[in-house]
């Protein structure tokens, strides 16, 4: 049980980090400073993967 709680906390922490990264990418993209725009899609999909794992753990 403690392992699942630890895993859930790690996933939640990763989700927060990814959302912050996504916000920074949005700002950079709107300012024209993001040369590789495909990273926005990769980040969005990684957020979806983490959310899926979190919901599956319930």
Summarize model confidence as the mean pLDDT. Answer: 92
| H and E string | HH
The counted number of beta strands is 0
Number of domains: 1
Spatial shape: elongated
Helix fraction, binned, reads over 70%
The biggest sheet amounts to:
none
Strand content: under 5%
Structure description:
This protein has 58 residues and is mostly helical. The protein has one domain. It contains two helices and no strands. It has helices at 2-30, 38-56. Helix 1 runs antiparallel to helix 2 (38-56). The longest helix is centred in the N-terminal third of the chain and has 29 residues, at 2-30. The two termini are 12 Å apart.
SSE blueprint:
Blueprint: H1 2-30, H2 38-56
Please supply descriptive tags for the structure shown above.
elongated; mainly alpha; 2 helices
Brief write-up:
With 58 residues, this protein is mainly α.
């Amino acid at each position: 049980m403690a392992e699942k709680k630890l895993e859930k906390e790690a996933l939640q922490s990763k989700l927060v980090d990814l959302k912050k990264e996504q916000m920074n990418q949005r700002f950079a993209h709107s300012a024209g400073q993001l040369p590789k725009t495909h990273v926005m899609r990769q980040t969005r999909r990684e957020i979806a993967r983490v959310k899926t794992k979190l919901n599956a753990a319930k």
